[in-house]
Design a protein that fits this description.
Length: about 525
């Protein structure tokens, strides 16, 4: 009874400050996100060795770094986001961390591009647990006035992990290959040892994550929410909504019209994929992309009939869609430049792996950390004065990196000229400026839904960052590089996305205030009992 009364009091007067335990939990979640990006990003510093040993080109690296990971990360984020909304989030994150760490280690055993692609898909599935679980946990640990800062701190793990991965990967691959030029223990070469060295420690971190306490949903917002009595029911509903042929069966159960629309989506996306395969010759890339977009379409159609309030606040919200699409274009640019920055320094500027890992990785980590923290703080400050203030930070994160990217990727190697220093400075500056948008965009999406919908909202947010940003940005840079023989041209070609992002963010700026003020009302109109 005492706990119940306490919860009731908190529900009447939501806290305005976070507890010490909230900060402790945030620290652990930050470490999880660091490892998340170490495992995700390490492939970039290993690219020259992978290209040599497995016969790959820049388009393959763009596919393996981006699409192979991103599609499965995004798609499984949908059912796992639903599970995060209904089940024990700490347990979900623990299981996911163990899976993606094991699959990273397995990447070191790949003998060809297909095996490496399969391992990367496994990493994507495991990592899909992290975003929905962590965003939902953080939103229940920190009050709304601190949420942008808290999410920004968590998101800073992205940049620490990305930078550390380059340092670790660079030192391991260079040191291992020097010590064992013909292959070390068990015949492993440098890139294989690097994958295993970053994958195995994740299993130890998973044991620490399992000790976290599960907070009461919505309590910090004054809307305590009961746990679902059937948490896995929604998970399997979402899973069947994205996996063919269950998608067609699900559509048929909703009626002949729904079935025909779903079949039409298959036909249209199949034709588009066939055209892109004919144009680029990248069969796996466009099959994966078409599968990803079809699965999202099927899921959204199914969600509309199964959970009308959640569908309404996400897929029928112009503010929500414009925000995630706008940030998706920021991710398009930043993922492309961060994926190929180490490769550019290695292959164009002629630096060794250890030097590139230390300076590109270290400076990139520091710049990204500063950018996401400063951007998060600024977004909270602006939101107190303007409900759409956070969108201004996202717009800044899209436009400000353009010039530094151009300068960095037009740098050419001349002995004694300091060109590597120039490249590192401007590549890091671009990362700092782009990273400022992340906390602002993430916090905006959380403000536009009810507490029970936060995991699903996070999964939808990551659909844009992955299926728009990660699946297309690095691949486009790599494909254009492979076609032109010029890596700089490949990376700079991604700037064509800027006008699209700017248009979306202007729509978001105009529509967010009204949408944020009417969340409960619109949910009730859609059938929610709030």
């Amino acid at each position: 009874m005492a706990d119940s009364n306490s919860a009731s009091d908190d529900a009447i007067t939501p806290p305005t400050k976070a507890s010490p335990y909230a900060w402790y939990a945030l620290g652990i979640l930050f470490l999880v996100y660091v490892l998340n990006f170490i495992d995700r990003q390490i492939i970039t510093i290993l690219a020259p060795d992978l290209k040599r040993d497995l016969g790959l080109d820049d388009a393959d690296i763009g596919f393996l770094y981006g699409t192979a990971f991103a599609v499965f990360y995004a798609l499984f984020g949908i059912p796992l986001g639903r599970l995060a909304d209904a089940w024990h989030r700490v347990r979900l994150l623990t299981v996911g961390l163990a899976i993606w760490s094991a699959m990273t280690a397995v990447s070191g055993l790949a003998a060809n591009r297909y095996q490496l692609a399969a391992a990367r898909m496994g990493v994507g599935i495991g990592e899909a647990t992290a975003g929905p679980s962590a965003y939902s946990l953080i939103s229940d640990l920190f009050p709304k006035n601190m949420r942008g800062t808290a999410l920004a701190i968590y998101s800073a793990g992205l940049y620490f992990g990305g930078g550390i991965s380059l340092m670790i990967g660079g030192f391991i691959v260079e040191g291992w290959n020097e010590a064992y030029p013909g292959g070390g223990p068990f015949g492993l070469v440098g890139w294989q040892a690097a994958f295993m060295a970053v994958g195995i420690p994740g299993l130890l971190l998973a044991a620490w994550v399992a000790t976290l306490r599960e907070p009461v949903r919505g309590l910090v917002d004054g809307i305590p929410t009961q746990a679902s009595p059937t948490p896995f029911k929604g998970f399997f509903e979402e899973l069947f909504a994205i996996i063919p042929p269950f998608t067609l069966i699900s559509a048929a159960l909703r009626g002949s019209r729904a079935f025909l629309i779903n079949a039409g989506a298959i036909a249209i996306l199949g034709l588009v994929a066939a055209a892109m395969i004919s144009l680029t010759g990248a069969t796996l890339q466009w099959i994966c992309v078409a599968f990803g977009y079809y699965a999202v379409f099927s899921w959204a159609s199914s969600l509309k009939s199964r959970d009308r309030p959640t569908f309404g606040l996400i897929w029928e919200s112009k503010a929500f869609l414009a925000t995630i699409l706008g940030y998706g274009t920021v991710a398009f640019l930043s993922y492309a430049s961060s994926a190929f920055a180490p490769i550019y320094a290695l292959e164009v500027l002629g630096e060794d792996a250890g030097t590139v890992g230390l300076w590109v990785g270290g400076c990139g980590a520091l710049a990204g950390f500063l950018g996401v923290i400063l951007g998060g703080r600024m977004s909270d400050w602006l939101r107190q004065r303007n409900e759409a203030g956070r969108i201004l930070v996202v717009i800044f994160g899209l436009i400000a990196p353009i010039l530094p990217i151009i300068i960095a990727f037009t740098t050419q190697s001349e002995p004694g000229s300091g060109d590597f220093v120039r490249f590192v400075f401007f590549a890091s500056l671009a990362g700092l400026l782009a990273s400022s948008a992340l906390g602002a965009a993430a916090a905006t999406t959380q403000d536009l839904v009810l507490p029970r919908m936060r995991g699903t909202a996070t999964a939808t947010f990551f659909l844009a960052t992955t299926l728009v940003g990660l699946a297309l940005g690095p691949y486009m840079a790599g494909q254009v590089s492979a076609m032109t023989g010029n890596l700089a041209t490949g990376v700079l070609s991604t700037l064509v996305i800027v006008p699209v992002g700017l248009a979306a963010l202007l729509v978001a700026y105009r529509s967010v205030p009204a949408a944020a003020a009417s969340v409960v009302e619109r949910a009730r109109d859609a059938g929610e009992s709030v």
